[in-house]
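Problem 12. The chain below contains 209 residues. Write out its predicted structure in C-alpha cell notation.
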Amino acid sequence: MITFDRSAYDGFIFDCDGTLADTMPLHFQAWSESLEQKLGHPSAFTESLFYRCGGMPARQIIEMLNRDYGYHLPVDEFAHEKEMRFVELLPGIGPIHEVIDVLHRLGPEAKVAVASGGLTDVVRQTLAFLDFQVGPDEAIKFLVGSDQVTRGKPHPELFLRAAELLGVEPKRCLVFEDAEPGFLAAQAAGMTYIDVRPFRANIHEAAKY
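Solution.
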C-alpha cells in the first residue's frame, strides 16, 4: 500500500500512463507498429529508449527521433497516427491497483488532477476504461494533457497548470509518477513526488526501467 501524510498536502496530481493505467506496453506497441509502417523497417526507438522517455509528449519524442536518427517524420501527422493506433489498442489496458487504491482512499472531496504527457482526449478515454470520469463531482476534478500546455515534461508547466486549476500552492501538492521526466517536472514545480514503480511489482513493464 502507498502511504503518505495526507495532512501535509492540499492537492494530489497523478500521471496516467504507467501510473494509473497499465498502458506502457500498448504505447510501445503503437510506437513500434506506426514507426515500422512509416519507415518501412524497424526503427531505432527501442523499448529501453521508450521507457526512458516516459511522460514526454509524442511531439517531443518525434522531434528527438528526427534529430538523433535522421528520420524525417512529419511531427503532427505522425503523432496523430501513433495516438490513433494506441486508441485502437485501449481495450487491452488494465488498472494499476496500488495507485487506483490511493484515489479511492482520497475520496471525492479531495482536490485531485491528472497531468499527463498524452493528448487530453486520449487520456480521457484511457481514464474512462478505468471507470473514471473528470468533473467537479468526480474523484478526478481536472485533466491537463500535453495539448493544453506549450512545454511537456520534464518542464513543470503541466504540474503547475494542474495546481492552478486545483487552487493549491505547488509546494502543497503531492505528485504520483512513474518516469524520470515526470520526477524532474515535479521537482522543478517545487512539488513532492512519489515514485509508484516499487508499488506495482506485479505489473509486467516495471522491470524494463
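Discussion. Residues 117 and 190 are 19 Å apart (CA to CA). Students who got a different answer should revisit the alignment rule from Section 12.3.
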